[in-house]
Each structure stands twice: as structure tokens, then as C-alpha cells.
Write a structure and sequence with these properties.
heterodimer; A: about 140 residues; alpha/beta; two-stranded parallel ribbon; 5 strands; about 20% strand; B: about 110 residues; mainly beta; 1 helix
Chain lengths: ~140, ~110
Amino acid sequence: MSQLRQHQSELARLDVDVKVVTFDNDFMAQAYVRDTKLSWPLLIDSRQELYEAYGLLRASWWTLLNPVTILGYLKLLWRGVRPGRPGSDWQQLGGDVIIDPAGNIRLRYVSNDPHDRPTIAMILEIILKGNAIDVS
Amino acid sequence: MRETENLFESTAGDLKIFKNPVRALKLPSKMVVCWPSEVDSRPCNELTDQWIVLSLPREFLILGPQLLFCELPMQPALPFELLDTLGNVHRLSDSRGRWLILVFHRHLG
């Protein structure tokens, strides 16, 4: 998300619509938008139906607490990002889906752990070149 | 093409199977199947979900795992209708004609 936000102006220039999806409740979602000054719409999928439909994974406890994941959190802390309190579902992982102007999926990236996200380079490559990837 | 062949454990016709899981692609438990795009037009969904299919120009096969971009049959995006934090309704169809990135967040903590 932070990588995407750093390239927000470039994505706007490319006329890319970005929508963030959460399963947390409206109260938490509004607090998140306020605290992070998120300018993209934050959609609430409280029943996690879209998460499930795109095959996004649920993490095991080992995935969430293994040394690699903890190292990822330490890196965030080092960069000044303070992890907050967990929301309603600790185990639901995220992912990213890129849909082309014709309505076809060009990327379905299913995160394998909390820090696993496509790079901004990958995202821009897909949009600029119109390639398709399935990383699940 | 000997170097290319060494990347693969086995071949079956034009199908080539990588020797090792492709960690560069964040696919630690999956095998990657590649075949030259110019000789095979079978839809990816004929293969099991546990395989990732890359259809690549033959000359790219020697590059192996670092090649992320490939041709896949287009799958239509899943329709949705969700409210945002301002109470606005968002639908897939709202973004027709534009690129859309859906960023699925983990918990918001």
C-alpha cells in the first residue's frame, strides 16, 4: 500500500482507478481513512465475500508469527510504521487484483504472508504493457 | 538450448516443467509450467490450480524464473457492489474503460 501511495500521482496520470478493500467494520475503516489520510475509496467487504471470491488466503499462526514475518514487522518499525491493534480477523491475508479497461483480470496476486505484495514495478509493468499474471 | 533444458526436470511434448519451485515468483509450493506461446494455445484452466502456467516466447524460456510477465487467457473480473466509508456504492462497472487496482487489505490495525 505504501508503495502504491508513493506512486499515486503516476497512477492518476495513467488514469488508474484504485480502490482499497477491507473487511473491518465501518468504525475502524473511517478511523483508518482519517489516520492515514487515504484518498482512495475504502470499500467495506464485511462478509469477506470478495476476498473469498478472489481466492485470498487465510494465514496459519505459523505464517503470522514465524521469524520472517516478525522480521518484516521489525523493518516496518525501523521505518517508523507502528503496527496497530489487529482488527476483526487476524488470519485473513490480503492481495491485489488488477483489472484492465475491458474488465479482465490482469493480475491476481494472492499474498502468502502479511508482507507479501506485488512490487510497484510489477504493477506498472502490467498497466503499461498490458501483460497478465496469476500469482497465487 | 541446452542451458534451457537444464532448467527443467522433464518435458512432455512442448510442456516443460521447472526443476525447482520458483521462489522468485513467490510460489514456494508450486511448480511452474512453461511452453512456447507460439505452439500451444490450450487454455490454462485445463491444468490443475496447483500449477502456474506461463506461456512464453521460446527465446525467453532460458531466463526462467525471473520472467514474471506472461500471456494468460483473460478471465473476467468478478462483479461487486460495496459501500465505502462515505456511504457511496462502488461497482466493478464503475471502472469500465479504466484500469482498476483492487487492494485487499489485511486487518486495518
